[in-house]
Amino acid sequence: MAKKVAKKSVRTAAATNPNPARDVLLASIGAVSLGGKEAQKLVGGLIDDSQQFGQRTLKLVEGTVNEVRQQVLGVVEKVQDTAQQNLAQVETVAQTQVSKVLARLGIPSKNDVAQLSRRVSDLSRQVKALQTARKAA
Question: I need a labelling partner for 88 at 20 to 30 A (CA). Which of 44, 59, 81, 112 fits?
Answer without folding.
Answer: 112
